[in-house]
Automatic annotation (TrEMBL):
<keyword id="KW-0472">Membrane</keyword>
<keyword id="KW-0813">Transport</keyword>
<keyword id="KW-1133">Transmembrane helix</keyword>
<dbReference type="InterPro" id="IPR003849">
    <property type="entry name" value="Preprotein_translocase_YajC"/>
</dbReference>
<comment type="subunit">
    <text>Part of the SecDF-YidC-YajC translocase complex. The SecDF-YidC-YajC translocase forms a supercomplex with SecYEG, called the holo-translocon (HTL).</text>
</comment>
<keyword id="KW-0812">Transmembrane</keyword>
<feature type="transmembrane region" description="Helical">
    <location>
        <begin position="6"/>
        <end position="22"/>
    </location>
</feature>
<keyword id="KW-0653">Protein transport</keyword>
<keyword id="KW-1003">Cell membrane</keyword>
<keyword id="KW-0811">Translocation</keyword>
<protein>
    <recommendedName>
        <fullName>Sec translocon accessory complex subunit YajC</fullName>
    </recommendedName>
</protein>
<comment type="similarity">
    <text>Belongs to the YajC family.</text>
</comment>
<dbReference type="Pfam" id="PF02699">
    <property type="entry name" value="YajC"/>
</dbReference>
<comment type="function">
    <text>The SecYEG-SecDF-YajC-YidC holo-translocon (HTL) protein secretase/insertase is a supercomplex required for protein secretion, insertion of proteins into membranes, and assembly of membrane protein complexes. While the SecYEG complex is essential for assembly of a number of proteins and complexes, the SecDF-YajC-YidC subcomplex facilitates these functions.</text>
</comment>
Length: 94
């Protein structure tokens, strides 16, 4: 019985860390993955580098083409998209 009493504070600390640190981080990662998979043509995005542009083409599962200015297009890995600032209808093909 005395040994359980010695481990009880350690178990409580782990439980508190789980609910305050680990669980919210896992939830945030899931939300980011859902946002990244929902990115489509015409969405305005912000990359982790701070670049703001419009998605002009979704190339494959982990890469998109982002138009930063008129005629300036860059390839971006989807996971580096920090946020989608405006969700729009897909742009029409030229």
């Amino acid at each position: 019985m005395d040994q359980i009493g010695q481990f009880l504070p350690l178990i409580l600390i782990f439980a508190i860390m789980y609910f305050l640190l680990i669980r919210p981080q896992q939830k945030k990662v899931k939300e980011h993955q859902a946002m990244v998979t929902a990115v489509r043509r015409g969405d305005q995005v912000v990359t982790q580098g701070g670049l703001i542009g419009k998605v002009s083409k979704v190339k494959d599962d982990n890469e998109v083409e982002v138009e930063l200015a008129e005629g300036v297009k860059v390839r971006v890995v989807k996971t580096t998209i920090a946020q989608v600032t405006s969700k729009t209808e897909p742009a029409k093909a030229d």
